Amino acid sequence: MTDFEVGNIAATAVLTAKMRALETGRPEPLISDPYAACLVEHSGLDMASVQLEQMTGQRLFESNIVRTHFLDTSLQAAIAGGVTQVVILGSGLDTRVARLELPSQCVVFEIDQANVIAYKKRVYSEEGVVVPADWRPRSGDLEGDWIGDLTTAGFDPEVATAWVIEGVLFYFSDDVVAKLIQTVSDYSAQGSQLLAVHFGAGALVEAQTREMAAAATNAGGYGFKSIVAEPVGWLDEYGWDVEAETFGSAAQRLGRTIPYDIEETPGQEIAWLIKAVKR
Ligand SMILES: C[S@@+](CC[C@H](N)C(=O)[O-])C[C@H]1O[C@@H](n2cnc3c(N)ncnc32)[C@H](O)[C@@H]1O
C-alpha cells in the first residue's frame, strides 16, 4: 500500500508532478522543477509509460505547464512586490517553496490531505531538499474548517497574502467553491493576491476536457463539479480586482499550443488563469 492509490484524488498530484518533471527535461522548458521526478519515484505509482514524446502537444500536459508557469511568475512578482505570507491550497506535490527559492522572510503555508502533506515532508527530508522560507505544511480539508488549521499554524489575516490555488477548484461543487472563496476573501488583508486557475464554460463542451472529466469520475468518483463562466464579475463580488486570461491565449503568447477541439469564443472559454488583488 502506498500513500497514493491509483485513481484516488492524491494520485492526480503525482501525475501533475510527472508532467512537471517531463517539462523540466524538455528543450527550452517553461518551468523548472528539479524535485518533481523524485516525488514521482518515491510515490510507488508506475508512471514510466508517461513519456515526453507521448505528452508533448497533449491538451492536459500543455495546459498544466502553462498554468504552472503563470502561477510561478505571478507568485514571484507578488513576492518581489513585498508580499511575505503565502498560502497554497491543495498544494499536492507543488514544490514552489523550494524550487522558486522563496526567501527566508516568507512564511509559506500549504494545505492538503494528511497523506499528501506527510509524503512530501518525508521525501523532502530524505532527499535533503533545502527550503529557505518558513515552510508550514499542514493537513486540512478544503471542504471543512481548513481556515482553523491555517490560523492554528500562525496565519496572520492582517498581513497581505498571496494565495495559490492550482488544479483544485474543479473538484468542488459551486457551493463549496463559494464558501472557500468567501473564506479566502474574509481572511485577505487589502493588497492580498489571489492566484488561481479554474475551468470555464467551454470545458463543458470541449471533447478532451469532457473525456478527462469522465475518466476521472469513473476512476475515483470525482471529476468536474464546477466551472466559472466569467471570473472578473465573479470575484469582484468578493472584493477583488481581477485580471483573467485564458489558458489558450497565454499558451499562444508563450509559443505553445493547446489543441482544443472547439474554438474559444467569449462565453465559451475553456480554462482561466486568474490574478486578483484585494481592494
Ligand atoms: C490535481 S492535484 C493538484 C496539486 C497541486 N496544486 C499541483 O498543481 O500540483 C489536486 C490536489 O488537491 C488536493 N485536494 C483535493 N480535495 C481536497 C480537500 N478536500 N482537502 C484538501 N486537499 C484536497 C489533493 O489531495 C491534491 O493534492
From TrEMBL:
* PANTHER family to which the protein is assigned, alphabetical: S-ADENOSYL-L-METHIONINE-DEPENDENT METHYLTRANSFERASE YKTD-RELATED, S-ADENOSYL-L-METHIONINE-DEPENDENT METHYLTRANSFERASES SUPERFAMILY PROTEIN
This protein's UniProt keywords? Methyltransferase, S-adenosyl-L-methionine, Transferase
- GO biological process terms on file: methylation
Transmembrane region(s): none
> What is the protein named?
S-adenosyl-L-methionine-dependent methyltransferase
Q: Which family does it belong to?
A: Belongs to the UPF0677 family.
Q: Which InterPro entries match?
A: Ppm1/Ppm2/Tcmp, SAM-dependent_MTases_sf, SAM_mthyl_Trfase_ML2640-like
